[in-house]
Amino acid sequence: MTKTTKTTAVAAIFLLFAGPVLANDGAIEHRKAIYQAIGGHMKGMVAVLKGQVPHTENLGPHAQAIAALSQMVEKVFPPDSDFGETRAKMDIWKNQADFKEKISAFQKAAADLAATDPGDMKAFGGAVGALGKTCKSCHDKYREEK
Which end of the chain has fewer CB atoms within 10 angstroms, the N or the C? Predict the structure, then answer.
């Protein structure tokens, strides 16, 4: 076997075993990006609601963005993304029915928030709080602490 053939064989074996790991890393990074975006929009809305910034005109777009992102969440936990650099607990894949119920509750709360008039600060704040409760419910059960 020539040196080139040996190198090619070693590379092929590496890709055979490391390929799924590399794919998992991509799935995990994608999931993290979606959750970071959701968190950013939540923080932006809370800052406005607390009066820390005056940008009430941004409440609606933040809510619409979260509603759109909520539709991606159920697709970002493929079976092969349960290890690596992730805070997702293994219970997600063990308790799929419960996890999907939590995602559905999040999606409904996000849609309700997006449908709430941002000009009605009391109602909008209540809808943000309801959304936050769905986040906490899932995080408490399915996300590892830092």
Answer: C
Distances, alpha carbon 32 to alpha carbons 13, 113, 121, in Å: 29, 22, 30
**SS3 state at 83:** coil
0.85 surpassed by pTM: no
Q: How confident is the model at residue 25 (pLDDT cuts 50, 70, 90)?
A: confident
Q: Where are the domains of the chain?
A: 3-142
What is the sign of the dihedral through the CA atoms of 119, 120, 123 and 125? positive
| Residue 56 token pair | 């009430």
Whole-number Å distance between alpha carbons of 144 and 37: 19
Spatial distance between the Cα atoms of 38 and 66, rounded to a whole number of angstroms:
6
For 51-61, the pLDDT digits (tens) are 999 999 999 99
Percent of the chain that is helix, strand, coil (3-state, to 5): 75, 0, 25
* Residue 59 to residue 62: CA distance in whole angstroms: 5
Do 88 and 142 contact (CB within 8 A), yes or no?
Answer: yes
